[in-house]
Specification:
single chain, alpha+beta, six-stranded mixed beta sheet, four-stranded antiparallel beta sheet, 7 helices, about 30% strand
Length: about 350
């Protein structure tokens, strides 16, 4: 009997996913719980095991395709004839005039700018997807042939789409101030910052919040995301219940999550539910940058380059280890005074 494996609901409001990589081929025998496919979402790339054993009779979605939750991805066992979803059926049976065009939002934007009707183009991408080159060729503005074209896939595509939305929807403002890190153990910088952040968020709850349906939802949990740069791109694993962890426990959890991020082995649960985000680029940090708010959160704290500087203390010029702390916030729901007070509270805790 054939088993139709559909793209599962991976939680956190996700409605679609990208088939990043098939771990099987058609005709291959697979056992239950063996790795089947890697799915990329706007959070991470997740390896999904096969829910059943049998012969992989038909793979219905190619690598690089973005499909909605509930789409049949593969048929295991049987004769390989899948019951297609309404969207798949429409794509397979509709006439050219009424066919649903397969194209990414970026390609649709380019088509609109060039005045090109996507329905008139035969897509050259996987499963007939219309590419940007198809659109520009049809619009008489074919791209130059020089240079290497690198498709935005997996984590890079997720980061592209997520940050585009954040930049488009959130009117962000950034506050910045100096912090004296002379007495801070920089080997434990991130956990110490997390500890200071969770304590300060108790005093300024509107920064530990989300915007939902036109309302600011003040959250009573402190699940802090930590931005981690990997070879695949930027991911934000979440330290759950950070307020209940000691600095030593925070240190161990941050290290564990960072190692899992580098190994691309983070679970969906480790990437969900963040209420606030902290970002620090370490040695690559500049004097100051403006991080984007991690939608649907309303604020993010940045720790920037730390170095010895000449400063004035008690009328004397002395050398101290200084760095900048920034708070980027959604100005629709947080005013500048509250964001500044929160940032100063974090700094006071670090300097103490």
């Amino acid at each position: 009997m054939a088993y139709e494996f559909k793209l599962p609901d991976l939680g956190e409001g996700l409605t679609e996913g990208e088939v990043a990589r098939w771990l099987v081929e058609e005709g291959q025998e697979i056992a239950e719980d063996e790795p089947l496919v890697e799915i990329a979402t706007d959070k991470t790339t997740v390896e999904i095991p096969s829910p059943t054993g049998g012969k992989v009779s038909q793979i219905l979605v190619a690598e690089g395709e973005v499909v909605p939750v509930g789409t049949v991805l593969v048929v295991i066992g049987g004769d390989g004839n899948a019951t297609k979803s309404p969207a798949q059926a429409q794509q397979a049976t509709a006439s050219p005039a009424g066919e649903k065009v397969r194209a990414t939002p970026l390609v649709r934007k380019v088509a609109a700018e060039l005045g090109v009707d996507l329905a008139t183009i035969s897509g050259s991408g996987p499963q007939g997807r219309v590419t940007e080159e198809d659109v520009r060729s049809a619009g008489g503005a074919a791209p130059k042939s020089e240079g290497e074209r690198v498709p935005l896939r997996g984590v890079r595509r997720q980061m592209f789409e997520h940050l585009t939305r954040a930049h488009r929807e959130i009117p962000a403002v950034t506050w910045v101030e100096e912090c004296d890190f002379t007495d801070v153990d920089l080997k434990r910088l991130v956990p110490l910052v997390l500890h200071a952040v969770t304590e300060s968020l108790r005093e300024y709850p509107e920064l530990n919040a989300r915007v939902e349906d036109g309302e600011l939802v003040l959250l009573d949990r402190y699940d802090i995301g930590v931005a981690v740069q990997t070879e695949q791109g930027l991911v934000v694993p979440v330290v759950h219940a950070a307020d209940k962890l000691s600095p030593d426990e925070l240190d161990a959890e941050v290290r564990r999550l960072a190692e899992a991020a580098q190994a691309a082995s983070l679970t969906p649960e480790e990437l969900r539910g963040g209420t606030f985000t902290v970002t620090s680029a370490g040695k690559a940090a500049g004097l100051f940058v403006t991080p984007l708010v991690n939608h649907p959160e309303v604020a993010i704290l940045g720790v920037h380059r730390i170095e010895e500087r000449a400063v004035v203390r008690d009328g004397e010029v002395v050398v101290r280890r200084m760095g900048n702390i920034s708070v980027t916030f959604d100005h629709r729901v947080i005013d500048g005074k509250r964001a500044a007070d929160f940032g100063l509270a974090v700094i006071a805790r670090l300097e103490a």
